[in-house]
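[09:14] KT: can someone run the structure on this one? pasting the chain below
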Amino acid sequence: MLDYDDDTGVLDRTSFPHPAGEVWDIASCPGDSCLVSTVFSKVGGEDCQGGVGVWRMEGEGEGEGEGGTLQEVCLLTHDGVPKCSVWSPTSSRRQLATVDDKTATLWTLEQASASVQSTVQLDGKGRSHGYCSSCWNPHHNHSQLLVSCDSALHCWDLRSQQMAFSLDAPHGLYDCRTKFWDARKLTTPLLCRQDHSHWIWSVQYNLFHDQLVLTASSDSQVVLSRLPSIASEPLRHIEPDEGEEDEERPPSPMTDDVIRTFEEHEDSVYEAVWSSADAWVFASLSYDGRLVINHVPTQEKFAILTS
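[09:31] RB: done, structure tokens below
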């Protein structure tokens, strides 16, 4: 666990031995910062078995790097091989969705157990690798789960247990592009950008200002972009001419552009994420284990706040 103090710039870490096996995926609960879920695998006899566990972090240690402990809350049973887990973004609900190679399951957590809220049978026929990652649709009261299957994206409604929409082959082979889509019209992307020279592994909107987008790539770069053309609240700025300072002029729209390219990494960057507590802080993680924390440039921050 990493604890970052934005005022001092100090980064503290605490390690937690994982008692259940090798960790393949980890997610923290938005409503309880001490609660985490892990997707893991362990060797049992001649087989390698997978599972999903919910844990409570305890004992953060007294010094830099000292260890804490993971107390088991519950283990979630799956018939298939678990791939990932994602918590409901609504902090008032302690719900967790898990995806394996056959099903997507919504769990409700109690004090020391979990009950199945709903289960969707996923259709992965004809796919060589099955489902591998997922995220919540921010609309429809977070009742839809978007999952990736090979080169396709499928969105499943956990209430009706039906597929809401699907998008096959949204990218060309190794096209190094970021594409933005409108789920209501999937015939063509709203916006297509090529800001990297190699594969893109991570794309994420800012949680507070959705015109800010992070992308991370195998070219070892993290790109921070401003995309007001597809934002919920497009940015505008005022450029007064000489002699017209006292006159009111209509604001002009800001254009889509790269704000800054961050090059602190020396290897492929596999993840770039925004802070859930501070709109202007983000972190990136590269293949060699290097973690870098950065900020949105001050000029861009003020432009957003005053627009």
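[09:33] KT: thanks! The mean pLDDT is 86.
[09:34] RB: yep, looked fine to me
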